[in-house]
Amino acid sequence: MGLCPKLVRRDFGGEYTRSAAQAVVWRWWETFWSDFVPAVTQGEDFTVLVNGDLVDGVHHGSTTQISHNMSVQRDLAERILAPVHDKCRGSFFVVRGTPAHAGESSEDEESIARYVGSIPDQVGQYARPELWIRVGDFLVHAMHHVGGTSSNRTEANALMAEMGEEFAWAGRIGEQAPDVVIRSHRHCNIEVNGPTPKGRFYSFSTSGWQLKTPFVYKIAGGRIAPPQFGGSVVRVGKQGLETHHFTKMVKRAKAVG
User: Fold this and answer.
1) Contact between residue 157 and residue 178 where contact means Cβ atoms under 8 Å apart
2) For residues 188 and 221, is the Cβ–Cβ distance under 8 A?
3) pLDDT tens profile 94-123
4) Contact 9/15 with Cβ under 8 angstroms?
5) How many other CB atoms sit within 10 Å of the CB of residue 237?
6) How much is the pTM?
7) C-alpha atoms less than 13 angstroms from C-alpha of 80 in its C-beta half-sphere
């Protein structure tokens, strides 16, 4: 259900050919990197953050993965991400995702991040728990996890709450609060923002690159929503901070009769 080039070689000489839906998603992936990112960054150098869940793993009895051999999943992730590393000239970071997908200690993500050439953190981990990074004079904080929702009308609540926690803890410990908070995990893009003395704060969650799995069809909120695909760009322009989001959605199934 995830990103897939045309053909994947599996253990003992087997092969997997992507589905028609995966072919559409792959074209969106190529469009994001070939058209959207160059247009938004205006030819400037940029940094890439992959914000967790580089592989799906073998979890909760699921059977939809291309292979349950983790070496196949890791090889596929490395094959997809190596060209991205080249596009940003090595300014590449990986944040750890969900243990159910990448192992309790994110061992699969660590292996992929090391192979691709992710910049390690201060203790030498190539896949880090979180990333604090400056974009111009602004501070960005990225982590994978964020609260979910069972209702469309409360979709933004967790992101506003996350920003409030950032402000509260920064004040409590005497640190600078982030201007941008980035979260993932939910596979959907939504942003909240508001005024600050420096301009505006931004708190957003990123889209994913995975089609709807059987698990999603049974959870509140996710079972009705179409899957979202895309990425986001944070940039400093003439008017200060800018956020740009590339988001595509699969159309719902056609009605019969």
Assistant:
1) no
2) no
3) 999 999 998 889 999 999 999 999 999 999
4) yes
5) 11
6) 0.95
7) 21
Asked if 252 and 226 touch (Cβ cutoff 8 Å), the reply is: yes
Beta partners for residue 131, in sequence order: 142
Calpha distance 178→33 (Å, rounded): 27
Please give the full DSSP string across 54-102, using - where no structure is assigned: SS--S-TT---SS-S-HHHHHHHHHHHHHHHHHHTTT-EEEE---HHHH
β-strand partners of 114 = none
What is residue 24's three-state secondary structure?
helix
Residue 48: CB atoms within 10 Å: 19
Confidence of residue 153 (pLDDT cuts 50, 70, 90): confident
Strand order in the sheet with 127-128: 48-50, 92-95, 127-128
Give the span between the Cα atoms of 36 and 232, in whole angstroms.
10
| Structure tokens given for 164 | 């409030």
DSSP 145-205: -----SSGGGTTHHHHHHHHHHHHHHHHHT-PPPSEEEE-SSS--EEEEEEETTEEEEEEE
pLDDT above 90 (res 228):
yes
Q: What span, in angstroms and rounded, lies between the C-alpha atoms of 213 and 30?
A: 22
Residue 54 Cα distances to 45, 78, 96, 148, angstroms = 24, 9, 8, 20
- 13 φ, ψ to 5°? 85, 0
Q: Could you tell me the two tokens for 91?
A: 């300014």
Q: Which domains does the chain have, with CATH numbers?
A: 7-249 (3.60.21)
- DSSP assignment of 214-248 equals TTGGGSTTTTTSPPEEEEEEEEEETTEEEEEEEEE
CA dist 15 and 120 (Å) reads: 34
Radius of gyration for the chain, computed over Cα atoms and rounded to the nearest angstrom = 18
